[in-house]
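Handoff note, outgoing to incoming analyst
You'll be picking up this chain. Sequence as last confirmed:
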Amino acid sequence: MTEFKQIIGRGTRVRDDYGKLWFNIIDYTGSPTQNFADPSFDGEPTLATQEEIDEFGARRTTKVIAEEPAPSPADEETQQTSPVVIEPPQAGQPRKYYFDNGKVEFIADLVHELDADGRVLRVVRLTDYTSEQVRRLCADETVLRSQWSNSEQRSEIIVKLKERGIDFNELAEQAKRADADPFDLLCNLAFSIAILTRRRRADRVKRDWSQYLQKYAPEARTVLNEILEKYAEHGAEQFILPDVLYIPPISNRGTVGEIIQLFGGPESLREAVKELQEYRYAA
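Most recent structure output, in case you need it:
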């Protein structure tokens, strides 16, 4: 335990001149970080005391110095009492670690989470942690589907999950389902619902919602089908406008302005793509 405290203590030292404002703990056995849960690791902060001595040099009383109250948000806006930490830019790709004559594979991702009182450290698998967080945000699959179908509410859920340290790429990698939509990964983890691939979702829209597609001219319908194909191959980011209009084969339909005119204007195009996304999660 003493050595562990020394290691963590060295890691937490800030060195502005070196740009060291953060550090990683690489725990390849799962046991060292358990030491964070030791109740005697830090303990409660020690209260400062002050002794008052009388004129004859005899100690009279000892009193605890009251802590200064935390500044209010208004005070923090008017007075900046502490420096602002700016994270250093991340140059290049993430670092890769090697060791001699060995083989590495990931068997699990664990999340270390403090309880509500900030005292007990709980270790859970990333998948179990994600499941809990999703159920806290949405009571059941119906609620999640309803919110996920709405682009604004979907963005809010994604932001909240990201704030909790949940990354869809990591989930897909751990589940070995790079072909799955993030919505289906969340439904599978939180509510034990079978995962649908993006390909199946795209094909279902073409089959079950063909009447929706038929209301557009053949050229516009071709563009929507190609957007669905892009989604099936690469993911939901293919619905971002106008970026997707610059990618072949969609870009082969003409300039961005010409493609927009196939739908009668930018608002009509945005509405068409929005409806297309909603139909993805209709069932």
